[in-house]
Each structure stands twice: as structure tokens, then as C-alpha cells.
Amino acid sequence: MSPKRQTSKRLSATLLCCVLLAAAWPGLAKPEQKGLESQLLAWLPDSQARLNLAFAYRPGNAEESKSSKDLRKATDRLRATLTLLTIRTSPGAEPRVIGGYNPLPWKSRFGRYQRNPGLYIFDLTSEERWYRQTKPAGFTFKRPSEFALSFGRGDLAILSDLKTGAARDFDFAPPSDKSILLGKAGTFTIEAIEVYEVIRHEPPPLSNTLFAAQNSRISPSGGSPHSVPDSGSLPLELLAIAALAAAARRIVRKKAS
Questions:
Q1: For residue 8, is it left (φ>0), alpha (ψ between -120 and 50) or beta?
Q2: Which of 74-88, 102-116, 124-138 has the highest mean pLDDT?
Q3: What is the mean pLDDT of residues 5-18?
Q4: Are 47 and 103 part of one and the same domain?
Q5: Do residues 104 and 175 both lie within one domain?
Q6: Lowest CB count within 10 Å: 11, 67, 169, 253, which one?
Q7: What confidence tens digit (pLDDT) does each residue in 178-211 have?
Q8: How far is CA 93 from the centre of its chain?
């Protein structure tokens, strides 16, 4: 599929919930859903990038158990990642899909974690996103057993139990006791986590592109009035013509003598 900029109608909260309930994991926003994927890719710096699932977890599933160490092991050194969370701010609240994009690895080669990572965070339910307003502040030693993932210094955070998250404005909005994601700073319940590796689109080499364009002008049936010859066989054709001309000259000389 060739991703394009989002042109369809905005997803309402009701429609989004229906999409989530139809997914293999209840409450999990799967980017395979065409509308969601189109919006997520349109927000990326490279809208033609591919998303490769690196980590998935549904805390409410009693048959599986994962820790923050599992999350870090799967995502630490990926070049760029897109994190999706399906959350509820209270037991009776509607599920929401929020997340963030980090263009850099979470962990350096020397074992240090980014202090306030992330380029932007978003609320996919309302189709809003917020870019970082402060500069990244280097690295710090954050252990997975203490903390899972955090965009900024806590603007959007997954706590170590992977069941709870927190949000408070620090780096993506002026610091306050509020949250651009939740309205009021506080915690929320995580129903599902998905982290995708963002694989940049690599265009074909220029030489291959020119070769393909040239071949596209040659018809399989031997050519058309607008076709061009295959330059690879041209020297052989010239040699054959020269040989035929030389043979014709010898025949003419023999007849003349």
C-alpha cells in the first residue's frame, strides 16, 4: 500500500471505538486499519514510511505477562518508533488512542537513556498532535525496572507495570498541573500498548530508475514508432551491419573482375 496524506473524513469517537472493538485485541488500535494508518503516516516526517510491529501487550490478558524490561529490550535501539496506547481515564470513560513519535533510539550504545525524548505526542481519537517546545536535554540513566517509556519529562509516560500511565505538561506545553492530552494532569489505565518501528522509505538508485524508464518505452513485440533501441545490443548490431557491408563489397569486386 502506498500511503497518502489523509483525505477521508475525520474519524468520530464512535467510529474509532467500533474499529477498536473489531480488532483482534479488544481496545487495541491496529495501524493495519486503513483510516488509522493513513493518519499516523501522514503525521510522520516521511509519509511513505512503513510500520513494523516491535512490541505489543494487552495488560488485561491473563494469558500473557510482560514487563518494562521486555518493552525496553524490544524497542531500545530501534532508529525511530511510533508508540500507540489505548487508554481509559476512568472506569466508565470511552477508550482513547494516544501516543507519541520518537525519531531517535531510546537507548544509546553506551547504555544511557534519553532524558526527555520524543518529537511529538498525539491524541488519535481527536486527531490532534503537539510538538516538543523544549530542546532535548541529553541522556540520563533510567532503568527499565523503574520506568518504561516517557515522552518528555512526563508529558506522556508508561509506568513500569505497563498497566498505568501518566501525563503532565513539561516539554510539549508550558509546565503546569494540566495535560494537553488529558485536560488535567493525572494517571490513566492502559488497555493496550503497541510500539512500531518506523522504517523510512528508500527510493531506488537513480541509475535503476533511468534504466526502468528506458525499458518502459520499449514494447515486447519489437517496438513501436516511439520506441528506442536497446543500447546494450547496439554495438553487436553495428558489427553485424559492417560485416554484411564488407561481404557485399567483396561480391561486387569479384563480379567486376
A1: beta
A2: 74-88
A3: 36
A4: yes
A5: yes
A6: 253
A7: 999 999 999 999 999 999 999 988 776 666 655 5
A8: 29
- 5 is a domain residue: no
**Do residues 151 and 129 lie in contact, with contact meaning Cβ atoms separated by under 8 Å?**
no
Give the length of the chain: 257
Shared domain check, 251 and 151: no
Are 136 and 231 members of one domain? no
Residue that is last in its domain, among 155, 177, 199: 199
Q: For residue 2, is it within any domain?
A: no
Tell me how far the alpha carbon of residue 250 is from its chain's centroid: 69
Residues 158 and 211 grouped into a single domain: no
- Do 74 and 114 reside in the same domain of the chain? yes
Which pLDDT tens digit goes with each residue over 122-175?
A: 999 899 999 999 887 766 555 555 668 999 989 999 999 999 999 999 999 999
Q: Do 73 and 132 share a domain, yes or no?
A: yes
Cβ pair 72, 224 in contact under 8 A = no
- Which residue segment(s) compose the domain that 187 sits in? 13-199
Long-range contacts of 89-94 (CB under 8 A, 24+ apart): 89/182, 89/186, 89/188, 89/189, 91/189, 94/13, 94/17
